[in-house]
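dumping this here so i dont lose it
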């Protein structure tokens, strides 16, 4: 399997690329600058030694075209719409996994939801219903993803309008050793994405005994 991570040169994208490579998935790191993508891909690959998956780098459009089916969008919210417009033509026949959280500029403890209700819904509206958008991985911190010696400390809440696309994305993410939950249609992203600034607030607070907490579904 070969997936693409657009924004794979950023902190969250880098951690995901390495974890998927360790799980046996080939990863293409996408960036606006192909040379930078190739450099970052080499740096991410260096400490992995005999990982069963490879990490390579390309410019965004080439990276999307090279993916078998699944493309993960992991850019900062400020570049969300512009990045999508730039790769939309190559997304036909693919599944977009939107992990972007709309945080207020200059204040990561506050959500700044778009008119559509969430980044996931905004992406679906922009791309049209023929390209399935799945919201996932919103509540996992870049610090947790980068710590390859530790497992991911939370469950993954997944939403989207196409069941088959969600099932494929959940199967992929579960290769990272986590539990995924189907949380309904894309509109559920309004709640899921809004959890992230709350977690950031808690993780930054001096009154909490942790710094990189996530969400876990607890059953009796």
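and the seq i came up w/
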């Amino acid at each position: 399997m070969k997936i693409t991570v657009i924004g794979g040169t950023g902190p969250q994208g880098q951690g995901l690329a390495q974890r998927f490579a360790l799980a046996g998935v080939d990863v293409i790191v996408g960036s606006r600058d192909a040379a930078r993508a190739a450099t970052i891909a080499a740096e991410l690959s260096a400490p992995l030694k005999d990982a069963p998956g490879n990490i390579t780098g390309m410019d965004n459009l080439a990276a999307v075209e090279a993916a078998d089916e699944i493309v993960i969008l992991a850019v900062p919210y400020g570049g969300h719409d512009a990045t999508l417009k730039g790769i939309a033509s190559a997304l036909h026949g693919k599944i977009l996994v939107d992990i972007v959280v709309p945080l207020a500029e200059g204040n990561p403890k506050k959500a700044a939801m778009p008119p559509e209700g969430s980044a996931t819904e905004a992406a679906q509206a922009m791309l049209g219903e023929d390209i399935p958008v799945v919201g996932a991985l919103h509540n996992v911190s870049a610090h947790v993803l980068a710590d390859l010696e530790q497992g991911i400390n939370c469950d993954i809440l997944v939403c989207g309008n196409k069941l088959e696309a969600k099932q494929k994305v959940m199967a992929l993410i579960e290769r990272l050793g986590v539990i995924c939950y189907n949380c309904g249609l894309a509109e559920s992203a309004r709640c899921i994405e809004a959890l992230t600034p709350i977690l950031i607030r808690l993780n930054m607070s001096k009154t909490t005994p942790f710094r990189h907490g996530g969400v876990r579904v607890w059953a009796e």
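The helical segments are 11-22, 34-45, 60-66, 80-87, 119-127, 142-146, 163-173, 189-204.
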